[in-house]
Design brief:
Belongs to the CCDC85 family. The chain is an all-alpha fold. It has helices spanning 11-16, 19-146, 152-165. It is 89% helix and 0% strand.
């Protein structure tokens, strides 16, 4: 036991003291013990409250962490989807470019063939015009030889020739 001054008394010193002094010391020490126990209880309540707050914060942080991990996973999946979509878009773009180059080549080839055919047809038409002009001259000469430049058959043949020329 301790004395009021805080120094520890030996057994012999305690035996020398009066009974009332010992009771007073005992009561004082009991009161101090009760005060210390109350203080310890209050400290424990504070520690428990603080612990509860920290546990609540930990639970909240775990929930937030879980939500963030789920969002992160969702964003990763979205990134993978968008990357796949981008790859498909690039592939489609290359295919359309190839198709466009192929189509342009075919069209240029066809245009060249059509121009060649048009040139051939124009040459053929020119040959037909020249031949028709020759035939018209021959018909006119034949009509003159028959003798009648104003005969009905020569007018019909000339009008039919002009229809063919046009």
């Amino acid at each position: 036991m301790e004395a009021a001054g805080g120094s520890r008394l030996s057994d012999e010193e305690l035996l020398l003291r009066r009974k009332e002094d010992l009771i007073q010391m005992l009561r004082s020490l009991e009161n101090r013990n009760v005060d210390l126990m109350l203080e310890q209880g209050n400290l424990m309540k504070d520690v428990n409250r603080s612990l509860q707050v920290h546990l609540h914060e930990i639970r909240s942080l775990k929930e937030v962490n879980q939500r963030l991990q789920e969002d992160n996973q969702e964003l990763r999946e979205l990134c993978c989807f968008l990357d796949d979509d981008r790859q498909k878009g690039r592939k489609m773009c290359r295919e359309w470019q190839r198709f466009g180059r192929y189509t342009a080549g075919v069209l240029w080839r066809d245009v060249g063939l059509y121009q060649q055919k048009l040139t051939e047809l124009e040459a053929g038409q020119e040959a037909l015009r020249a031949e028709n002009a020759e035939l018209k001259e021959i018909v006119l000469m034949l009509d003159e030889e028959r003798g009648g430049a104003g005969s009905r058959s020569s007018i019909d043949s000339q009008s039919s020739l002009s229809v063919v020329l046009v």
